[in-house]
Design brief:
Length: 258
């Protein structure tokens, strides 16, 4: 059923979105964001090594026994299957990289490490940044840590445990979040709770990215509610991912782009 929901939403999206290339975007900041983050194609030096690791993970048939906080059960799953299901595709992972690079974000928060490829992109975007990534599964987090070692990344801190519980303690020790990426529990209540908890730590120039905004009716409901929040000024809807902006100097506008 989720497939049919997402497919129907995509059909609606392509008829309402525009390939603007930034044309008609009157805010200088938003125009630059479109050009340098969304539509930029040139690769950075680190992309090739991360994508080689992606290929390796998709061919890794090692089986993990994973504790599932949602169901309270354990399940066996191959790393290759996790990679195919949960890794963000290169285009959008690299877009997240460019967003962090463009905003010069120093403190980055990620909810949902998975195997760590998007985390690696977040960390490689600014060597002076600190990336704090929360992951529910200890078994998956260990694979992510090994991946960071392979990529020689040392500016990532992983917090392991049920994100519904670890997020509060993590936020206590953070003064300000420059960039946040939500890709964890996909239930409406969880996403709204994450947003409300993170919001006090976001500053005027902070950027929030939310993944899988049309993955289900609950995700779309959460996305639409966040768009209507009084603190939100502008958003960019790319179907797979949504970007949220809070700077009051930006135009109050919700963009859709392909």
């Amino acid at each position: 059923m989720k497939f049919f929901y997402t497919f129907f939403q995509y059909l609606k999206f392509i008829f309402s979105a525009r390939n603007t290339r930034g044309h008609g975007v009157h805010s200088p900041f938003m125009y630059d964001f479109f050009q340098k983050v969304i539509y930029e194609k040139n690769p950075y030096y680190c992309f090739e090594e991360i994508e080689k690791l992606r290929k390796s993970l998709k061919n890794n048939n090692k089986t993990l026994i994973i504790n599932d906080f949602g169901t309270g059960t354990k399940r066996a799953e191959k790393i290759s299957k996790i990679a195919r299901r949960s890794l963000k595709n290169p285009r959008f992972a690299q877009m997240i990289f460019r967003a962090v690079h463009f905003t010069k974000s120093v403190t980055v928060l990620e909810l949902g490490t998975s195997l760590g490829l998007t985390t690696a992109y977040l960390a490689k975007a600014n060597s002076k940044s600190k990336v704090i990534s929360l992951e529910g599964s200890e078994e998956i987090a260990e694979i992510a840590k090994n991946n960071f070692n392979k990529l020689k990344i040392n500016n990532i801190e992983i917090v392991v445990g049920n994100i519904d519980k670890t997020l509060d303690d993590t936020l206590i020790n953070i003064d300000k979040i420059d960039f946040a990426f939500i890709d964890a529990n996909h239930r409406y209540e969880a996403v709204i709770q994450y947003f409300n908890k993170i919001l006090p730590k976001l500053a005027e120039n902070s950027v929030l990215a939310i993944d899988d905004i049309y993955w289900s009716g609950q995700m779309t409901q959460a996305w639409n509610e966040i768009k209507r929040h009084a603190a939100v000024v502008s958003t960019v809807d790319l179907f797979q991912t949504g970007f949220v902006f809070f700077n009051e100097n930006l135009p109050k506008k919700h963009y859709k782009a392909i």
